[in-house]
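Q: I have 260 residues here and want to know how they pack in 3D. Can you give me a structure?
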Amino acid sequence: MDKLRGKKVLVVDDIEAERQLISTFLRHLGCRIYHAHDGLDGLHKARMIIPDAILMDFEMPNCNGLDSCKLLSRDSKTKAIPILFLSGYSSPSEKVKGLMAGAVDYIAKPFNFDEVKMRLSIHLKYSGTKPSCEEGRLEEGESEQGFSHSQLDEILFYSAQIELLKSLDKAPGLDELARLVGTNAKQLNISFKAFVGLTVYEYLREERMKEARKLLVSTGMPVTDVAQAVGFSTVGTFSTAFKERFETPPSRFRKLERLN
């Protein structure tokens, strides 16, 4: 593919067999390939070579891909280089962390070579188009992090959602949640409103009510235990919130559901 011919690609992976596998494929496409065996080695070589793109494994010893990506994204010499993560794990939380660290994409192992070629071609086509820090201005609709506002809202929402749903009975407060996803409370609420039409508090309350309804219908847990399981300190507060949401107290709701 002409878009890839002559392009410098740095492959960062601690497993030699996987480095060689993807490198052999990219050489057939005309790429000039460079290797690094961990995140620290990748950081040094990226600064020396200034490749057109970096394919980086997520989990590596010494310095993992996430930490290396953060450093490369903050370096004025390397921040414009598109970084694509490679990983055998495809959890939403991992993808979100990668995007928040500065990566542009995520390719799952084992590799689908057509996908590798397509994604790399797309990002090489648009790489180098970000305004430089010397220009001192942002394109319309772009945030200070380099994402469009809609992109940033989506990333922050999914990142925060993961933290909130880990344990509804111990969900972090707004300030702590904002800290965990790398933003501030005001921006996090703005992103939630833009993406799902609810504030963080409203979204969490709705998720708690949905989970409570499920527990009341599918288990025999006492209402007091259901209240605690979804994060309410007292059964009275829970019952009031549940009735406001479903127009029926939790005990009566359970009885009605079992009659249907």
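Q: Anything worth noting?
A: The radius of gyration is 23 Å. The chain has three domains: 8-128, 149-202, 206-259.
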